[in-house]
Amino acid sequence: MLKDRSTEERILDAAKKVFISKGMAGARMQDIADEAGINKALLHYYFRSKDKLFEVIFLETISRFVPRINEIMNAQLSWKEKLEAFASEYIEKIIANPFLPLFVMNEMHKQPEEFLKKMWGGDRPRLEKFIMQIQQAIEAKEIRPIHPAQLIMNVMALCIFPFIGKPLLQMAAGINDKEFFNLMEERKKLVPEFIIQALIF
Amino acid sequence: MLKDRSTEERILDAAKKVFISKGMAGARMQDIADEAGINKALLHYYFRSKDKLFEVIFLETISRFVPRINEIMNAQLSWKEKLEAFASEYIEKIIANPFLPLFVMNEMHKQPEEFLKKMWGGDRPRLEKFIMQIQQAIEAKEIRPIHPAQLIMNVMALCIFPFIGKPLLQMAAGINDKEFFNLMEERKKLVPEFIIQALIF
DNA sequence: GTCTATATTCCGATAGAC
DNA sequence: GTCTATCGGAATATAGAC
To answer: Looking at chain B, which residues constitute the CATH 1.10.10.60 domain(s)?
Structure first.
């Protein structure tokens, strides 16, 4: 807790930490106040309600993750390069924010309709160009036939799931935190390789 | 709500539905009472507290999913057949209980220590045999070298994640509920194929 | 802006009639 | 066993002093 940071900034950092680790329903305003080193009343002074505070955190958080998808998927890159860039960058990001995927998935399930509008207000992921590249690679007999949606699911699953299922995986595979971290680092290269091997003849 | 089902049974069904869709923290005893068609007091009559009721639901739920892992992974099957059996059976099960993965992942993250003890009290997943088969296949140059833990992550990710990330995937890939269901059916065969193709030379 | 104290609402749990 | 009514605590939110 640095003294020179503004109170509002400290609240936002504290709220992000608490909301992401406990979820909206599990988070307590007292937890956030303690984490920020202030009292509850100040939270309401800066942000009217818990709902408002949550909304700020939520939108700010996902806005740091969405735009880069479009940058990668619409760049002048081959489908292989896009897979490599996506896996590498997003696994890297999630390593730095390991609780974020479960948080986002939870809130997406709870607020399906209005969430979508706010999350991608004019900022929907645009995968058409990538999908066309895949379809062309299929027609050119470069890769096996696959529904583009299945491929997208596989990419997201392989990048995101290990962080959501970490406890399950640690139990099933018998690995500790350090080993888990090393495996995640390795996945930045392993995931695109795995996918490309599955696709090509 | 069938009249001839016992009150305890109705409560358990209602609690399962509410807990799985809202999580422990988000679920209300009133919600469960309404869903079961009774009042709150009866919940406490049958199960002392919310915690106790949740524990019953949680253990009963996962116990229907864990043992089958050991059955498959220790059967007299090749590593390919085990992958096919696991993917097919678990995707099938999750299609019938689509909200269950997110529920289980959430509660695993919240109760890491005691969760593990209860979840696998003498019933840990035993993947040693499968792991040895993979290592032997690697040594025999049948498949590419891969850390067994990475393979296990990939299998679980490809089977489980689509249900957790459904809203995200529907947004990214632009698919509706009916199309999503069809894709999940297709995955029972697609996932093992995808993995095997990625593994073999 | 920041605090203490308090109001208000919500929710799990219990008491007691039937 | 099942209900209504209510308690008691916890959590969000507000009032008001400084």
So the answer is: 1-48
Decide: A18 and A31 in contact? Cβ < 8 Å: yes
The residues of chain A that CATH labels 1.10.357.10 are 57-199
Q: Crossing angle of helices B128-139/B148-164, nearest 10°?
A: 120
For residue A200, the SS3 value is strand
Which residues does strand D reach (CB under 7 angstroms)? A 27-30, 40-41, 44, 48-51; B 7, 38-42, 45
Question: Angle CA(A56)–CA(B25)–CA(B99) in degrees, nearest 5?
Answer: 90
Chain A residues touching B165 at Cβ < 8 A: 105, 153, 156-157, 160
At the topology level, CATH places domain A57-199 in Tetracycline Repressor; domain 2 (1.10.357)
CA distances from B73 to B134, B191, B194 (A): 12, 17, 19
SS3 at position B188:
helix
| CA A185/CA A95 separation, integer angstroms | 8
Looking at domain B1-48, its CATH class is mainly alpha
Coil/strand/helix, residue A143: strand
At B163, which amino acid appears?
A: F
Tell me the pLDDT of chain A (201 aa) as tens digits. 445 589 999 999 999 999 999 999 999 999 999 999 999 999 999 999 999 999 999 999 988 888 899 999 999 999 999 999 999 999 999 999 999 999 999 998 987 666 666 666 666 789 999 999 999 999 999 999 999 999 999 999 999 999 999 999 998 898 999 999 999 999 999 999 999 999 999
The Cβ-side half-sphere exposure at A32, using a 13 Å CA radius, reads: 33
pTM of the predicted protein model: 0.94
Q: Is the Cβ–Cβ distance between A105 and B164 less than 8 Å?
A: yes
